[in-house]
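A common beginner's mistake is to predict each chain separately and then try to dock the pieces by hand. The better habit, illustrated here, is to supply every component at once so that their relative placement is modeled jointly.
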Amino acid sequence: MKTDSRLFRIAKWTVIYTALALGMLWLHDPRDVSMDAAASTVKFVYQQF
Amino acid sequence: MLPFANIDFYLLFALLVALLYGLKALLSGRVSLVSVLIGISLFYAVAYFPKPWQILLFTTYQCLFTWLLLFRWKRLHKLLGSLLLALPMVLVKLDWNVDVIGFAGISYITFRCIQVYLDGDLLRDKFRFADFIAFLLFTPSLLAGPIDRYERFKGDMDQGWSRLNGGALLSGWEFMVLGLLHKFVLAELVDRYWLSECEGCTEAWPMLKDMYGYTAYLYFDFAGYSLMAIGLGRMMGVELPKNFDKPWLTQNAPEFWKRWHISLGDWLRDYFFRPIYKSLSGVQRLRTWPLLRQNIALFSTFLLMGCWNGLEAHYIISGSLFGLYSVVYNSYQHQRKKLGWDIWKGVHPTVVKVLSIAIMIHLAVFALYIFSGRFPYIHG
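With all components supplied together, the output reads:
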């Protein structure tokens, strides 16, 4: 399958959206507006920059 | 509320982007895109920064001195001018009691001002204050880059409202989705199920696990952050530069910084390495030693990068390691060209490529592990 074909694009984005949706549901509490990973980056950013 | 840190930020900017596109027809012709972007950036800084006066005071200082250096103090030595712009950042890094300006994003604003100042001869005629303010405070890249260039940013602003179109919105959305996946799923997975088990370990195997885990985490986290910044930037009409480009395919140390935190690597090359190399060329004793000049400039650049992260031992050693890798590679290339001495002679190019990638990735992972401060034998 060519990487610029329509079919490849549809398959690629289906995988991405599915992984994102499942990952967010599994790893983050939708009722909790603070996100752990983001908080760690902000901490990192504060330390570095 | 810091950029990309919690759901409120995403909701606020979803609303702002929707308003930008919804009111585009009404606003275009009446008010410029750059004015609206300044308005959004100022609103964000004032309403959501923990201490908004810090960023406003610091930006005023930087704008004032950049303008003075560009248009009034043209004869001042570039090094002195750059130091004047970097002074607040240096004071913060030295941990002097400068709460008045110690806020997240100070380095990136400083880098942008130094870029404008050092490129002053090329930019002076094109300089427009509104573009400059928008360039400094553009919210998506305010905190952690990517470090844009003024002339590129201005090019986007010159196109005005036509920058906001369906293509930009879709492409921005795609970057945003990829960034969310990197940061909130992949980085979170590594953090939760890989890193948390090994922190503080002193035995060989858990330390190795920690070393690779930290690099994976840092990549997903920072690349995700950069992707989201690029995505939101595109939705708002600004095409921020790419910050990561498959760093795991790096074959040598200089290439690493063309694939990892690219905008910082490019900035250091243009505004630190080149001026140092140029000034070393004027040193009589080094005139016949071009390799030594290059190596001094290379090592100093990476050492500075380490010090910029902080003056703790792990940052300085990590920067020095990257400097050492670059010096060794540069010297090897020099010898290869001059003497024809090639350690890979007779080896198939594909094998050379695979081995180079394998060696470089392990060297980079080790240096980043030192950088993390998690290596138990090097403490801050």
